[in-house]
Amino acid sequence: MKKLFLACIFALIGAMGATAQEVTVQISLPKYCCSESDPIIEKTLAYERGVESFQINSITKSVLVTYNENKTNQDKIEKALAKAGFETEHHKANKRAIEHLPACCKNTAKGLDSGCSHSHEHTHSEGCNHDHNEE
After folding, report:
1. Which CATH number is 63's domain given?
2. Domain coverage including residue 101
């Protein structure tokens, strides 16, 4: 009897999982500055319950998010981004969180600057490229 009961429970759980609906939305980040702030967005969305995947687009200043509508919704995701310091179409950025953004992104979020005027596409090499074995 217990085995039958457990089998029914597992079948029910499996059926509930099969009805999970994935939804994909594009969330505008109007004061997004540059890729320097991407790690904050990535961490925020990675820990947001129900978010399946996301892709940040620096050109359109938006993030494409796929989520399970049984676990979350667009409003909750936008609130999480706002709490992390990013303004969305429906939510203002948390002022304290803005202070933790990179300097250029912080100024853009505060409305002090219209965006980065410099490129972040550079590499850092290890070492100083000098030959320290010279005598």
Report:
1. 3.30.70.100
2. 21-109
